[in-house]
Each structure stands twice: as structure tokens, then as C-alpha cells.
Amino acid sequence: MGDDGHVNAMEDDEASAAEQRRAIDIYPLRNYFFGSKEALLFKNEALADRVQRMNSNYAAYGLRTYVGAVLLVELFKHPHLLLLRLRNSIVQLPGGRLRPNESDLDGLRRKLSSKLSAIGASDASDWEIGECLGMWWRPDFETFDPHLSSNVKGAKECTKLFLVMLPENREFFVPKNLKLIAVPLCQIQKSHETYGPVISSIPQLLSKFSFNIIGT
């Protein structure tokens, strides 16, 4: 096979791989309404007290599981990730800790409704949760960088990220002490120090998908 044939074969392989990637429908940010609701109550405690509380809960209930939602929107013709900001510095994915014996999906739906839906709204089942994108394990609560491995023995905490597909339109109601922001995926990938190891890995985790931006 000549050079032209080799190049054509490579192009065909790349095109075939692209076709095999599952497309994610993303809608413009302008399609969504953003309102506010009563502030959430957060524990005001010192780091040492927080670590002690988490260790006590681990002793009582076992592995602590945190679930986070990957929500995507379009802005300026590029995919953006929705994040919650607390105190103008702490940034996190919508989600939270599971209750004892609560399933991943039930817990994530509960947390999404608590942080992003109107008070009293019964739309927990309306959240379309897709596949788990990744899992991180932490062997202790004193070290705040999670370990990306399924073989961590005696892990105390597991963080799971799930892809959540947004409909064409939706109303978001965010607690007054939180702010919902849209951050470009390209910015997140380059800002490990700002967003931490979990959030900054999301662009790479999404590389197996293609984005179908609708309505731009």
C-alpha cells in the first residue's frame, strides 16, 4: 500500500472511531432559567473537628460515598460544565454524600433536587442519569487528594461521577449561598490547582463522547 493508501486508511479508522462515540446532546445556556431559594445550612467547624466527625461516621456506617453530577451546556459554541461555587472560592460539582444504604442514583437525584430544584418540587425522578464516568478512592480523611484506583485497601471514601443529561429546557433554583457557574471544559482541563484532581479530569473522561450542540 502506498503512502496515499496508508493515509486514507488512517482517516477511515478515525472516522469510524468518531462514529462509534456516543453523542451527548447539549443545549444553549440561554434555554435555562436560573432562580434562587433559601440558603442551605453548612456546618461551621474547624478542619480537625470535620475530620473527627468523618472518622466517627466511618466507624459507624462504613465507606463514605460522594456522588457528583456532570451537567453540560453550550455557551459561545463550546461545551461548558455547570459547577456550584461556595464563598467565592470553593467550587464543587452538584451532588453530595449518600445516606446509609442509599443507592447511587437515588442519592444523586435527591441531591440534585435539593440544590437545583424549586422548594417542594417533586422532580427527583426527572433527572436523567447516565453512566458512571469515574471513581476515586481515599484511604483517609486527613489527605484531601483522592486516589484514582479501585484497589485501595481500607478506603474510607469513594467519589463517583455520573453523566446527567439535561433536557432542552429546565428551571434551576439555587440556594442563595451558592452560585451556579458555567466553566469551559478547555479551561477546566488546564486548571488542576483551581478545580482539583476530580473536576479537572472531566474533560478527559468525556473524550470518548462527541458533543451534539443543538439550537445555536
TrEMBL record:
Give yes or no: UniProt keyword Cell division.
Answer: no
| GO MF terms held by the record | mRNA binding
The cross-references to SUPFAM superfamilies, in alphabetical order and at most eight, read: Nudix
PROSITE patterns cross-referenced by the UniProt entry: NUDIX
> By its UniProt entry, which InterPro entries does this protein fall under?
Cleav_polyA_spec_factor_su5, NUDIX_hydrolase-like_dom_sf, NUDIX_hydrolase_dom
Protein keywords: mRNA processing, Nucleus, RNA-binding
| Pfam families documented for this protein | NUDIX_2
Does the record carry tRNA-binding as a key word?
no
Task: Tell me the GO BP annotations in alphabetical order.
Answer: mRNA 3'-end processing
Cite a GO CC annotation.
mRNA cleavage factor complex
Q: Where is the Nudix hydrolase domain?
A: 62-187
Q: Kindly list the places in or outside the cell where this protein is found, as annotated in its UniProt entry.
A: Nucleus
Indicate the quaternary assembly: Homodimer. Component of the cleavage factor Im (CFIm) complex.
Matching PANTHER family:
PRE-MRNA CLEAVAGE FACTOR IM, 25KD SUBUNIT
Which family does the record claim for this protein? Belongs to the Nudix hydrolase family. CPSF5 subfamily.
Q: What is this protein for, i.e. what is its function?
A: Component of the cleavage factor Im (CFIm) complex that plays a key role in pre-mRNA 3'-processing. Involved in association with CPSF6 or CPSF7 in pre-MRNA 3'-end poly(A) site cleavage and poly(A) addition. NUDT21/CPSF5 binds to cleavage and polyadenylation RNA substrates. The homodimer mediates simultaneous sequence-specific recognition of two 5'-UGUA-3' elements within the pre-mRNA. Binds to, but does not hydrolyze mono- and di-adenosine nucleotides. May have a role in mRNA export.
**Record-given protein name:** Pre-mRNA cleavage factor Im 25 kDa subunit
Q: Which organism is it from?
A: Cucurbita maxima
